[in-house]
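ok trying again, last paste got cut off:
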Amino acid sequence: MNAMKRATAVLAAAAALFVAGCSSSGDGDDPGPSPDRTRPDSRKVSGMRGMTLPSWNTDDYGSPQAETYLRQIAATGARWVTFTPTWYQDRVTDTAMRVTEETAGDDSLRHIIGLAHDAGLKVMLKPHVDLTKGGDRAEIRPRDRDAWFRAYERFITHYAGLSRTTGVEQFSVGTELAGTSEDGEHWGHAIAAVRERYKGPLTYAANYDEYRKVAFWKDLDVIGVDAYWPLADKATSDPARLRRAWQPIAEELAAFSERQHRKILFTEAGYVSQRGSTTAPYSWTVSRRDGDAEQAAAYEALLAAFEGKPWWAGVCWWMWDDWPDSGETAKRLAYTPHGKPAEKVLRKWWGAS
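nice, full thing came through this time. structure:
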């Protein structure tokens, strides 16, 4: 989920939107053998029952609230948590990305990974690149692609090394970079560099309208999709209707999985608790009206539609609570299921006591 898209949407909402109805270099791990790129890696990618806990500031992951959040996430029956350290570039044509005050500090990241493991949670690290001046990361199309990929390789291998030294169980090599993801050659080099530093399973988080165009699935272990498909043309809290809407999408994904010889993980999925959220799951600001029932129905429909399918590798929901004083969307309207009917849905499906 694009942080700048989030901020832009919030500003738009403030203007009366209403719909009725890292500071160090790589860790220097020794290179290992290169895997066979023509087939999935032999490492098992287990079904994920996950929740994303994003970071918006340098010290979020080191805050006193971190341990509380992780224990709350584990209490839903989740077995995984995803963290999202983010670097930024100013314009879509820039040739490099950089650390800002919104980038999770490395020490805080190491801290929260340790806390997650202490709470019995496995970790996926999913580094993001966002834009400081608005816009969607999917529009990044650097004017000098060679230079951008050199910078991207420095960025992504830094976190690959950190993931290895902290025992991270799964790693995403990128998120929603549709403006570059058809470039299999450059991405192949970046993924090979990640493989030299990190030995666990790899994925890439493609947006729901991007995954068919990604040119490098053969280099990864699992296909990642950010599953923000619109499911309805008007607000609904009917899980059966929403489950029917998933049917043709599921058939398409099953066929794609078979062609690629890889399972599909929903690296993100989520719904704001606003009326109409199922019409635009990618939006932070569908309306100003509470939609707890619609959010819960959407959780129910997704889990009912995909749970147990042999080609499906699970889901990591977007997202748990915002950090104190950083939330731009009121909790009652935000993506979090915490304290809402959607959390009860998770507990039912995930077997929480």
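cool. The domain at 3-10+45-350 is CATH 3.20.20.80 (TIM Barrel). Residues 7-46 have pLDDT under 50 and may be disordered.
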